[in-house]
Amino acid sequence: MTYPTQPTASHYINGAYVEDASGTPLSVIYPATGAEIAQLHEATPDLVDSALAAAHRAQPAWAAMSGTERGRILRRAADIIRERNHDLSVLETCDTGKPLSETLVADATSAADALEYFGGIAASIAGEHIQLPEGDFVYTRREALGVCVGIGAWNYPTQIAAWKAAPALACGNTMVFKPSETTPLCALKLAEILTEAGAPAGVFNVVQGKGAVGAQLVGDARVAKVSLTGSVPTGARVYAAAAAGLKHATMELGGKSPLVIFDDADLESAVSGAINANFYSTGQVCSNGTRVFVQKGIKDVFVKRLAERLQGAVIGDPMQMETTIGSMVSERQLEIVLGYIEKGKAEGARLVAGGKRLNRDGFYIEPAVFADVTDDMTIAREEIFGPVMSVLDFETEEEALTRANATEFGLAAGVFTRDITRAHRMVAGFEAGSCYINTYNLTPVEAPFGGSKMSGVGRENGSAAIAHWSEIKSVYVAMTPCEAAF
Ligand SMILES: NC(=O)C1=CN([C@@H]2O[C@H](COP(=O)(O)OP(=O)(O)OC[C@H]3O[C@@H](n4cnc5c(N)ncnc54)[C@H](O)[C@@H]3O)[C@@H](O)[C@H]2O)C=CC1
């Protein structure tokens, strides 16, 4: 590995890198080869405390700055990220094993988009004025919550850190962020860049560690809000811990999203949609449409065309620009995915393509397509978080909608059809936070993103995010003397 992947230190607190070698060692593995590329340490309880103290100290002055000033710093950070996109994308690939052809356009650039977007609206975050009888009025102040905690998953380490930091900081909060222990490198770069852009010390801090470090952060009395991106079981634990302290919470959790393809759809476009809904980032995307419902009349031709198109996938070294499928993030995740593939076969689904581990170093698997999947099979019910597509067939619109919604999850849903009224009817009926018509998995920063049902609470991105990173203070102003009964 010739890329500089060992960071200056494990943590970033109060505007500087900090090391504490007494923490448990944390080894960073490049999943494309299995080689160790960095050695970090988990944060000790004292170190976590010092990060929270730094964020707590910095928050009043940060909130007291004008939105314009805060926004300028965020936008400057966005510019620095864009200038360094190549190196940051290489680091994202080292952290995750995702192909550079993807990380160059979807990770640091998405972080820059978030910083630019929320930097742009920071100055117009405001309350309102409400007129009342006798000249009295109420005005509202939209205020920061205080110290916020962000906790990330491993699939989008740069994007997750920025999607939380940008709106939090725009609203005048400060943050302590804990990346996933599997991908700890990228968030440190965001912290470094925010300092360079002018963010005062303590405004954005990063501490490394596993669940225990996350739990300490969530349980701390100084923390006003917790935003987690992770799995449903972790989300349930973190949400409960936040509730114990009556903290604000945003939970971006897992999914098992449906993609419904009607027989009048543009076939090539629908196949592309199914590919993007299942194999981007080697299938490690929370909103993936892994239950692909295809109307009976076109099922065979759809599966045939999909298998042909899969021949064009280039699996291998993620640093090569022609590569379109990199490695899984870890050996553990690869084993989980292989386990699901065996279950799919054992329960009677037909493996149409892929599904084998590649015989080389690193954690590679061929993208897999199962046909003849039924709703009760494990692969159709549980989130796999890997490149495994399940194709199910259906006859009527009503049936498709009922079966699409028959899941505890509700993150995303998509429909391919040329019938516009049917498309909108389906979308209105989907029990999901993010819906797609004739496309899939696009997540521009302008669009609110988040889940229904067990897939989460709250929304990230879009102007909707402001409500989740601030609160309203209502101020009643009397224009006449105050009267009392006695
Ligand atoms: N809805 C969304 O926006 C997204 C959801 N995800 C979901 O994330 C999952 C994959 O990511 P993983 O890293 O495996 O998830 P995970 O749930 O295992 O871990 C998520 C984070 O929570 C931390 N954590 C674990 N236990 C904790 C505790 N008790 N208190 C505080 N923090 C704790 C972990 O260290 C990690 O940083 C998938 O289920 C996926 O669907 C991933 C990306 C986006």
UniProtKB/TrEMBL annotation:
Listed Pfam families: Aldedh
Coiled-coil stretches noted in the UniProt entry, renumbered to this chain: none
InterPro entries with a match to the protein in the record: Ald_DH/histidinol_DH, Ald_DH_C, Ald_DH_CS_CYS, Ald_DH_CS_GLU, Ald_DH_N, Aldehyde_DH_dom, BADH
GO function terms (MF aspect): betaine-aldehyde dehydrogenase (NAD+) activity; metal ion binding
UniProt KW Disulfide bond keyword: no
SUPFAM superfamilies, per database record: ALDH-like
Keyword terms, alphabetized: Metal-binding, NAD, Oxidation, Oxidoreductase, Potassium
Enzyme class: oxidoreductase
Enzyme Commission identifier(s): 1.2.1.8
Active site feature: E252
BP term (GO), one: glycine betaine biosynthetic process from choline
Residue ranges occupied by any Aldehyde dehydrogenase domain in the UniProt entry: 17-475
Family label: Belongs to the aldehyde dehydrogenase family.
Protein name per its UniProtKB record: Betaine-aldehyde dehydrogenase
Organism expressing this protein natively: Primorskyibacter flagellatus
